[in-house]
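task queued by scheduler; priority normal; single chain, no ligands, no partner chains; default sampling; output format set to structure tokens
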Amino acid sequence: KKPELEQEDFLKDRIRDAAQYVPLDNLCISPQCGFASTEEGNHLTEEDQWNKLALVIKTAKSVWNIE
């Protein structure tokens, strides 16, 4: 819902926290929200949305050792 990106280390910490309860191989990462189906939903530019997805991909590659 906000164009500001979380820090990658923050996301990794949240994944590590979740991995205390669920095996890491059973976890995934995705945007909670921020991609509205209507113009009135969220005020994010297309670039903001792509940046969020790029952060998700970068974080996932690092956490799960994906090339």
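post-processing summary
- Residues 8-63 form one domain.
- The longest helix spans residues 46-63.
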